[in-house]
Protein 1
Amino acid sequence: MSKRIGYFLAVILLLIGAGLRLLELPTLPPGFSNAEIDELLITETMRTGSVRVFYNLRGEGHEGLYPAVLATSTTLTGGGLVGYRIVSVAAGLIALALIYALGQRLFGTAAALSAVALASVSFFPVLLSRGVTRETLLPFYISGTLLALARALPIYGVQESREPRTTTFAALAVLLGLGFYLHPISLVFSLAMMVFIAYVLITRQPISRRALSSLWFAVVVMIVLATPYVIASFSTPDLAGAGRLFYDSDSPRQMGLIESLTRGLGGVFLSGDTDPLFNLPGRPMIDVVSGLLLLIGLVTAVRYWRQPRCALLLISVIFLLPVAVFARRSPNFLAFSALIPVLALLYGLGVVTLYHSIQRRSRIFVVLAVAGITLFNMVWTADNLFNQWRDHPQVKAAYNARLGELAHHIDVTSADVSTVVCDPAVGVIDPPTTLNDTQLMFLMMHRQNAPIRAINCELSLVLPNGGEYMQLIQPNPRGTLDISPFLQHWYDTGLPESPDLPDGAIPIEMVAVLHNRIGAFTTTAPLSFAPESPGGEEVTAPPVRMGANLTFLGYDQTVNEAYHPGDIVPVITYWRIDGLLPPDLQIFVHILSDPTVIAVQWDNITVIPAQLQPRDVVIQVAYMQLPYQIPEGSYRISVGAYSETDDNRIQIYDGDSPRGTRLFLGQITVTG
């Protein structure tokens, strides 16, 4: 087969591989798994400038190279389900190109095409390229390093006419050196590459002095690059990679070595990984026929082990395979990530071996068989990925599918539909240290600047554009339990849930209801200006215009009632946004024993002022607990707003005349 035809077919295979990896990328996988979220948290930590060799995540070390790549990439592309995954897709496609180049150099065009065919359409490599995990870079790292080494050293046992370029040795040094900061497997793989170099020297392969000098220089550069990693490993041994080679290092081994070996190898050809994160539970990594061809390639490599090109693959298998098969949860496909290029090349070698071992007239059947296997695997993978795997209950649970669906829905619709998102962290003085469902959903959104209003639904409600059609997003599946009982009727009188909306998206339209409620305030919610204001304590009716583009619309009649010491007094106020608000706006509600003495104080706002738009109506609930030692008597309630930065209260107006900085709503009575 000519190289030109080989390149043409390789491009077709790469396009097929790209389609399987890119199709429905925003929704497949349906969200982020907990392990992926950990990677993203490290990435965001690095984005703040905290750069380390090892990151401590709940007592386990994580290398920093992959988060650094993510942080750099997402600065340009944006985050979310697409932005974070595009690095993995690109790495997977580049790995396919490197596998082709490596296979062509080692065993010829036919073997290279066969290797790429297997790697481009097999289920696990496709799914790995959609994940957000450091293992997604391993096929790129392994194939790139093997290619650099194969171009730097004489792999055919004869001295080549052209000396290897200096860039080849530089690439080899950089890949080997940076690999330490990617994954613990680099400890084993670098040792394997040193063994291969020793093999080339011991077997006296024809290598020029210039190439030998460049090779030693590459080894020195690798050592220099790896020095910070070694120092960090000695200074923080609990986080170092050596203890994490066999995955799940913090869990006890639950099976013996023989059982691990049997299950690990059996998972490749017979019964696969049961973890839904990286496999359709039980599906083998490679079909039986491809497995037989792979074994033929392995036997061929063993038979011709004296040839450097076969020795390169054998040494890689000898060092990488134990890490995969002796993983503590075996079979563990994630542990096989580094072996993907090697297994694909052995498959390609097996195809070529079978092709040349039969009569010339029958070789066409080998070609047709390989084409049929590729087509079968492509259809098998597409059906498993886009039908069975995506709808598997374990997959939805493992990838937080509900949050992913809501994130994608907001990305698609928020530009056209007013969107309000329940976030229990808004307005909380001491937010929890772990991410809640809403924050996880925001992490999955690609459009980080989407025009949404985040609110604490337990204490507030925003009705955009005067109550026009909106969608309320409740990421927490138990979100309805967090709604204030004083706000529940607004949700109950909303629109019925639509089957076109994902679970957790509630349609609401309140123009008429809100208009009637605000209109009633003119007679049901009397106000008075502060006694210290110009003109004195004059009674007025809402709405009342304030400074900073804010208007007080009124309040619900929960005041003018009797309470006991220790009771909670709910004060529900309505505010309209008339323009850009100060980002540090705060609302205050005071229970006063006299006009100047505060008995109970509430200063907060459970919406994000910078997200509010003109004509938005904010309903704010303030829960104010009376002291247990509060004296009996009558207490007045005042409200207002201020800027938190300078504590300057916002002016209140009667027409164009200033009338102080607070309004009086009424009074409550405290009885024994």
Note: Confidence is low (pLDDT under 50) at residues 249-253.
Protein 2
Amino acid sequence: MSTDPSPRTQPGSYGARDITVLEGLEPVRRRPGMFIGSTGPSGLHHLIWEVVDNSVDEAMAGHCTRIDVTLLADGGVRVADDGRGIPVDTHPQHRSKSAAEVVLTVLHAGGKFGGGGYRVSGGLHGVGVSVVNALSRRLVLEIDRQSRHHRIEFADGGRPRTKLEVVGAAPRGRTGTTVSFWPDPGVFEDIEFRAQTVIERLQVMAFLNRALEIRFADQRPDHAQQVTFRYTGGIVDYVRHLNASKEALFKKVGSYGQAEETQEVEVAFQWNSGFYESVHSFANGIATSEGGMHEEGFRKALTNAVNKYARVKGQLKGKDDNLLGEDIREGLTAIISVRLAEPQFEGQTKAKLGNVSIRSLVERATNEKLAEWLEENPREAHQMVQKSTLAARARLAARQARDLTRRKSALEGAGLPGKLVDCSSRDPRESELFIVEGNSAGGSAKDARDPRTQAILPIRGKILNVERARIDKMLKNVEIQALIAAIGAGLADDFDVTKIRYHKVIILADADVDGSHIRTLLLTFFFRQMRQLVEGGFAYVAQPPLYSTLVGKEKVYLKDDSAKAAFLAAHPDHRADFQRLKGLGEMDFGELRDTTMDSGRRSLLQVGVEQAAIADEVCSILMGEDVELRRHFIQTNAKDVRFLDI
């Protein structure tokens, strides 16, 4: 009897039967992260963006004037528009299905590929609403078209429950599409939507689509609210909104635009008295957080136009060096919005625009139109050039301080800051840096750490508020010097995320008001001066417990008020007085290790930046000088603190 293994079971055998073909929407169910990024809060909210983007595309095509987004009382979402309505006739390639059913059940099916339905669109890949269907336990599509109200329902990951059928007459004169969906709790970690996240995104869409009305309503118990966005000024209003938390250098918001056959650009801009640039770009309504050709064209032409103007007006003399782009962009808030027929985005994330032709258009428009604006607004132009000149002087002073910092950095071989207690591992992927406020807490953390992978950097008091300081002043600050040296990847434009010495940079501060302030100062520093650290997912906030209590002889730690409420609900007869832990110094090293530092038991909050413009605004509100605006922001967001990121 042969003992040879069959061809199917031979080690290393690989044949046609090993090839799995996933049909319909099954690939989405198997690998949701490939389509929506994650199954966490960002992926959950991405479902709304996909549906709303389709309605916005209708608006960009000139067929939609209003979009209604409603968070339903039962946890679902309804998105309705007054566009043309998804076609309801039989699809020529799928003769047993209506076009509407094909759009909901077939990946890469939509009206954005042939060029007839949409001149421009943000939904480039055609996977949007079908992915939403695949990841919902139920979805209802309603279409008003040709005076009829059509309806089709899907369930259990996108399977049709009914055929598309006419269920009545459309409201008089109405056309449009309504999508209602309920996310699948078997797919997502949490299916509760955050109203503020939705509101922020919808507001941006309204800014980018002049005069489009977007209404939001939250019908959930204890969340009821309504808000309407409509901006007749479009991106001019957007710039004014972003600068509301800053001190504008002058009142005017400049703008210009230019169009060609298949593409157009619109730019709005205003300088403020701050030290950071806030240049945000969009292509067909999609945020291009990594920039691209449109941003390149704007930056190059901006530098050229301002230098040319400054020399003609004598603000730059013959012997003076030209202003650099970074000098001119100090304090600049600008929105660059382009629309084009065939956008070339890099990857499904659509973070960078690759069309070379749009660079030429933006550069040409900026050279011509910005030069005209500077001539027509001499007082504002003079103020801006004067600010840029001061920025250039500060840049030269900062270069000297930065060179000194480089010479002292570990990468240059001159050693790490003296107060850093480093880990023995030299592999950044497993190494962690805990930034701890105060010497006593630093001592406890030193004893509580795993010396192989965990490093401790104590800092003294509250670091400099970098939102209100130029880089030359910042680099003289001892605590900031220590942070730069310990992380080891440089600063600002010189920051190289591939050189960071730790893949987890963890802020460890008290669970009280002072601790919150320290966290905000540090996160502002990271966002403004080491942005790639945040964007790469390397910045974290430790979650030390706020309360402790005794259950028998065992001490139980509770992270926050929500955890305390949950504990009391589970232990209604609990009689011990809870102890509020005011500081890390109140814990001995064993308690600190067990509750906050041990990788097997701790809870870390990863800090992320999904929309740079919103993050920019939050930093300005929290760390700026407008007290009333800051108070309003905190009161508005306090109930959603579990979602808070910078």
Note: Residues 547-580 form one domain.
Protein 3
Amino acid sequence: MQDKRITIYTYLRPRIPRMTLGVFLKFTGTMAELFLPYVLSYMIDEVVPMGSSSRILLCGGLMLIAAVIAVSFNIWANRMASGTARDFTRSLRHDLFNKTMGLSCRQIDEFTIPSLIARLTTDSYNLHQTVNSMQRIGIRAPILLVGSLIIMIAMDPALALVMVAALPLMGGLIYYFSRKGIPLYKAQQEAVDDLVRTVRENFSGVRVIKALSKAEFEKHRYDVVNKELVRRESKANITMAITNPLMSLLMNLALTGVILYGAYRVNAGTSLPGTLLAFTSYFITVLNALMSITRVFTNLAKGIASGGRITKVLNAPADLLPSLNLPGKDSDAHIEFENVSFSYIPGGRDNVEHISFKLGRGQTLGIIGETGSGKTTLISLLMRFYDPREGRIFINGKDIRSIDPNELHQMFGVTLQNDFLMASSIEDNLRFGRDLRKAELELAARDAQAWEFIQALEDGFDHDLETRGVNFSGGQKQRMLIARALAGHPDILILDDSSSALDYKTDAELRQAIKRDYSDVTTIVVAQRVSSIAHSDLIMVMEQGRCIGEGTHEQLLQSCESYREIYLSQMGEVAK
């Protein structure tokens, strides 16, 4: 049975009792505020002509009590509204982050990382503002509007008709511009996605940009994206801002009509000065309420656009779920690919096709080939970041699609091409949230050839890394990443181009340490250097998504021309 669809109301529902109390407090405070002009009108028209000081003091006391209630209840309600909006946003952002972390690689590719970042930040903030303003202004403004109109009609129906006549036109303006605003704010958020993407790319590649003197080019690229965001934001804001002057014009015209008509009625003796004074006060209250309602609808338009973007992620179907009905096979292989083909673009050309191999426990597979030949794709398929279009992948005879994702991923120790280090201590980076002893971390650091430079640091394992480990060299970072992969003593060790920054001596010592202390671990090494994979039990040569050579180092030198050319070029020998 399919899970119930998540909406923004899903997160508001548990907070309805608190919001209801806030509405009651806001209603009480606002009604007390509406009471003030009416008492003032009564005092001017009825009490003052009687000359009774006690009644004047009584009316003044009532106004003071009403003012205290209005201020205290509105402050109380506003504090509750802020707390509700805070808790709502925290819960929503928490679930959105959890959902984002659970998305498959295919889904992340579809949403894009910059867009997910914008949804976690800008969109969630827009919803926070919407929920907050709806509880504060969104409750208060309609009460002021409706309450003022009711009192005005009760005091003088003839004067009230001037105001009522202008309301349909004002309501139509608010409705029209609100309908226009939602798609404009959605387009604005898409422009924010582009801006986040550009900034992220520049920050990630700042060293390359400086090295190639492309700062001006990147400034121009950023300027184009920034101007597009400004254009869309200006269009949305201008469209919504038009409502303010139009509403002010209509309200002031109506106010002018009320004053002129009211003065005529006072002069004719059909209305009283206090009533006209109260009418003016209520009219200004109605004007401010309508202006507040337009601001609420602006926030609401943003919130609806942002809410749609967030719920689209929250309602993304669970991908790559385990299927318990898939049959396994009797095999002594630890890892087996069986005629596997895959394309990142559905219906597009396969990025890898018809890949088959077997690897026994404790054996090493080396994968080599030109850039874009599908080496990393094979790793992604093995870890089930994606499912193959055709074929099957087995671990210990089980189809990986029948293994729970958490159980599957715990089998691996991984160092990927674009791996990361946290802005934390070396020990935290190696432990990576796992329950590992200090001795295990030290052994992994020794085997990864990182122990020597870690011990040379004044604070050793407690030394703090900067973001992405920029205070370490490329070779030091790679050795720490390898140590992190080794620390949990995984069943399967994956080293994806993880020794490119290591010298040949360190690379050789690393291979020896892995062979000595991790002999039961099945290892997959993706490399550009023949020396990194020459001692593998099985070597695959990839070219344009196909395996064009398979065997040991000696076998491939005899049977695979591409492998022989790579070997000769790297070893400095001239082919005959």
Note: The chain has a mean pLDDT of 85.
